[in-house]
Design a protein that fits this description.
By secondary structure, the protein is an alpha+beta fold. It has helices spanning 11-23, 51-58, 73-81, 90-97, 99-109, 122-132, 160-163, 218-235, 268-271, 276-285, 311-315, 348-362, and strands spanning 3-7, 26-31, 42-45, 63-66, 85-86, 116-119, 136-139, 150-153, 168-172, 178-186, 192-194, 198-203, 206-212, 239-248, 251-258, 298-305, 324-327, 337-345. It contains 12 helices and 18 strands. Strands 10, 11, 12, 13, 14, 15, 16, 17 and 18 form a 9-stranded antiparallel sheet that branches. The protein has a 5-stranded parallel sheet with strand order 3-2-1-4-5, sandwiched between helices. It starts with a strand and ends in a 7-residue tail after the last helix. It binds adenosine-5'-diphosphate (ADP) and magnesium ion (MG).
């Protein structure tokens, strides 16, 4: 039996549980605290920043993977040196830990991305702004998620608090028509499979909805797949890779990367023959990859924020029986992702309407029209 170890007990680890059951893999989760979304599979609770605890966990499994990108890279390198399988490997994972490292490495690969600067000081800022134009996007290189750590900025004062903590990534503000995500998976044997491109919609920097397939010309779709493959192969990624993209009149540009199942891929659980969780487990176990083909013409995913209200089902109205629900079993908190809903079928706009209505009923849904 393949024993998979997941560091982190969040919703991504949670959604790996049914996939592992179907594949006949054992899944063990190293959670930070009791009562995490992945509680069902938790075998150890502790601090993943402690080498001893991480090593103890690694010894109980065949391959180690992740629910989040917070485990220090040097600890993972030590595990690899001791002979443990860590997927994605630390040298690839490093890009998702630090957005400045990511920009440097992507530049080295010749991948299209927004113009960018590393800002340490006021003089760096002046030089960067002169080149980028007045309006740019500042990012804290590490630890940001869901738009936390991203600001649209025009003046030095907008980032002076961040600079005191360390360097800031300053990017050209992209005038995008849409945001897209290209997801794929690379197995430990080198096999590669991609899902069709999806469109992601963000409200205030947080993913709120995903539509699939994204409508894009054949040439740009191929380009997106080519970018993902280049990143996966040159970095030696193993597992699911998500490439967030900006689509502009000038073409497509890479926003950022994730090397694990990603919010933009939740839609595949219903829409594809193979979910991103199943594909991730297959990839890191060195099993043949599953088919990424769509089993319906199209689909939509709508995130449910703040709470996931089961009482809404008792009333029932507004909850379509065709909409599939995913409750992360998180403690309610304003604005946090509490779950998502997916609807698949023949035509996007009625699916979106019923998925939004269901999401609104269960918790908060966010969208602008
Ligand atoms: N260079 C940019 N130009 C325009 N919008 C951006 C840029 N960078 C980020 N954004 C917006 O902010 C969102 C969050 O930024 P991102 O770097 O993906 O951070 P997070 O790690 O929080 O997902 C993006 O999805 C996009 O909507
Ligand atoms: Mg992002």
């Amino acid at each position: 039996v393949v024993r998979i170890g997941v560091v982190g007990g969040g919703q991504l680890a949670r959604m790996m549980i049914p996939a592992s059951i179907n594949l006949g893999f054992d899944l063990a989760v190293f959670a930070e605290e009791e009562g995490s979304p992945a509680d069902l599979a938790v075998s150890q609770v502790g601090n993943y920043r402690e080498a001893d605890e991480l090593e103890a966990f690694a010894r109980t499994v065949d391959v180690l993977t992740f629910d989040h990108e917070h485990v220090p890279i040097n600890l993972l390198e030590a595990l690899v040196e001791q002979g443990h399988k860590v997927f994605p490997p630390p040298q690839a994972l490093e890009l998702t830990h630090d957005k400045i490292v990511m920009r440097e490495r992507l530049a080295g690969l010749g991948v299209p991305q927004p113009a960018w600067f590393t800002v340490h000081s006021r003089s760096d800022w002046d030089r960067a702004v002169e080149s980028l134009g007045g309006s740019c996007v500042a990012k804290v290189p590490t630890g940001g998620y869901d738009g936390k750590g991203v600001r649209f900025v025009t003046e030095w004062d907008d980032i002076s608090d961040w600079i005191s903590q360390g360097p800031v990534l300053l990017e050209q503000r992209m005038n995008f028509t849409r945001e897209l995500a290209q997801l794929g998976a690379r197995s430990s044997t080198g096999e590669w499979a991609t899902w069709p491109l999806v469109e992601t919609r963000q409200v205030e920097g947080v993913c709120s909805e995903v539509l699939a397939p994204a409508e894009l010309g054949a040439k740009e779709s191929e380009l997106a797949k080519g970018i993902a493959l280049k990143i996966a192969e040159s970095l030696g990624v193993v597992g699911v890779l998500a490439v967030e993209l900006f689509h502009t009149d000038e073409g497509i540009f890479v926003n950022e990367l994730a090397m694990r199942p990603h919010n933009s891929g939740h839609i595949f659980t219903e829409l594809s023959a193979t979910s991103q969780f199943e594909q991730h487990l297959r990839a890191i176990a060195g099993y043949p990859l599953g088919s990424p083909h769509f089993v319906a013409k199209c689909g939509v995913m709508v995130n449910v924020f703040s709470r996931f209200d089961h009482a809404a089902w008792v009333v029932g109205d507004g909850i379509s029986s065709r909409v599939k629900v995913h409750d992360y079993q998180k403690a309610p908190r304003e604005g946090r992702k509490a779950g998502h809903v997916v609807a698949v079928g023949e035509s996007q706009s009625p699916l979106l309407a019923s998925a939004r209505e269901t999401a609104r009923k269960l918790g908060d849904a966010r969208y602008d029209d």
